[in-house]
Structure formats: C-alpha cells, structure tokens
Amino acid sequence: MSDFVSDTWHYYVLGLVVLSLIFCVWILASNMTRREKGPVTLHEHIWDETLQEYNHPLPRWWMFMFWGALVFAVGYLAVFPGLGAYQGYFGWSEVKQYQDEVKTTDAQIRPLYAKYAKQDLAAVAADPEAQAMGQRLFLTYCAQCHGSDAHGNKGFPNLTDNDWLYGGDPQTIETTITGGRNGAMPAWGPVLGTEGVKDVANYVRSLSGLANDSIRAQRGKDLFATNCVACHGPEGKGNQALGAPNLTDKVWLWGSSEATIIETVTKGRQNQMPVFKDFLGPEKIHLLAAYVVSLSKNQPSK
Length: 302
Fold this sequence. Notes:
Layout: H1 8-30, E1 42-47, E2 51-54, H2 60-79, H3 94-117, H4 121-125, H5 128-141, H6 143-146, H7 170-179, E3 181-185, H8 189-207, H9 214-227, H10 229-232, H11 258-267, E4 269-273, H12 277-296
Helix pairs in contact: 1-2, 3-12, 5-12, 7-12, 8-9, 8-11
C-alpha cells in the first residue's frame, strides 16, 4: 500500500518523465544535421583566449544509439512501472515479486518443517538436523535482542539458564514466541517518594544476598509488603503468570546495582517480546521453540 494519500504525486512523476523524454527527443532532433561539404567552421566561443571547438555534427552511429536508448525507455515504461502510479503492462512490482518468491520458497521447504511439526518439542530438540534449522532461525530473528549465543543483553533475558519470566516448559516457550509478551513494571517513584524507593531498593538487594543498608532494608520490607507483593509475592519469588521476576536469585534483567534498582522502582520498566505468529508461522515457531528449549535443558538451576 502506498504511503501517499494524494494522487498528486502520480501526475507529478508522470509529467516529469514525459517531459524528460520529450526534451531528449528535441535535443537529438535538433542535432540531426549532416556534415556539409567544405571546410569545417569553428564555434564562436573561445576558452582561455586560444582554444576553440570545431562545429562537427555528432557521428550518425552515435545519434542512432541515443535514439535506440529512447525507444528502449519508452518500451520499458510501457511494460514496467515508471510512469507514476501506472504499473505497466505486466503489473510488476517489487512487493509482488518478493511475495511470489516467498511463496515459491515456502512451497519448497514446507515439507522439511512439516516433518517436525508433527513431533513434540522434546523430540525435535533432540534432533541434530532440527537443531541446525532452529539455530539458523534464531540467528536470523532472535539474536538481535538475545545475542548470537542466547546469553541475552540488558533488558533481554538469557535463554541458556533456567530462570524464566513466564515459564520455561516447552509449551510455554512456544506460546511466548507465538503471541509475544508485554511486560510492564509500574513506576513507584510518585507513590514511594525518593527515600521510600531507596528503602525498597535496599530490601530487594537483601533478598538475593547483595550488600545493603540494613536499616533501609527493614523499612523497605514494610513498603514491599504493601506495594510489591501483588506481583512479586510475599517472599519476592515472582509470579510467572504475570511475568514478575524472582527477586531472590542472582539473575537480573536490568542490573543489580543499587542505582539501577532505584531507577527501575522509580520509573518502572516496559519490555515487549514481538509477536511471531503471522511472521513465522506455526511450523517455524515449533522448530525455533525446540531450539530454545535445547539451550537450557542441561543447565543447572540458579
């Protein structure tokens, strides 16, 4: 679909192309002169007071080459896009060609994916050929956020451990890839105030054994119980149904420093995992999920 909301651009491009062709025809026609017998005259213009140019007509073969280029241009514009919104006789477009190539490729490789679509994820995860296919999918669509080694980045989870925001069982992983996730941590700065945020941050650090101010942590415990347990639970172990992280382990999506936790509590966080349902389709998602499952199945829990 065109990004333009007016047809004015169509007439502008059409006029510009047609006028350009007419101008080229005029230039060629005005120079279609034969060489006359007798001495060749000089042009009147002079460079550097000494250099002058002979008034030779263009060679005939050169002129015919230009005329041939114009004929080709007119023929091209008749069958392919180039005259504004006119799609040409064949109706060709880059988008249509891409879609046709995708359909052709999908028809060729669909049997490969269909072979694994009928198997459960555990069986697919154990198949070396399926793993190679899943890895290629991962490197193409997932490595930008989770890294080529799947160890994640700041704000993007590590997929090689056993710490999962929404659950790490095969079916949940496939659901996550299919429908995406939208995690939201509300901003508590306006509610808790500057000192209250610092107290909660120190209490959160104490949950995982990190250095903390014990007095602030004690005050933060009460604030945590009042404001945070709905998502993270009374012991801070999180809630996979809500995507609320476990605060008692040593896995931190954004970082465990006091300053980072204060920033998280104050401003909140917004994380979005894109939806791949329509983009990849169920067969590719099945392979991709199996590959992700294989990344963490032999890792010890943290």
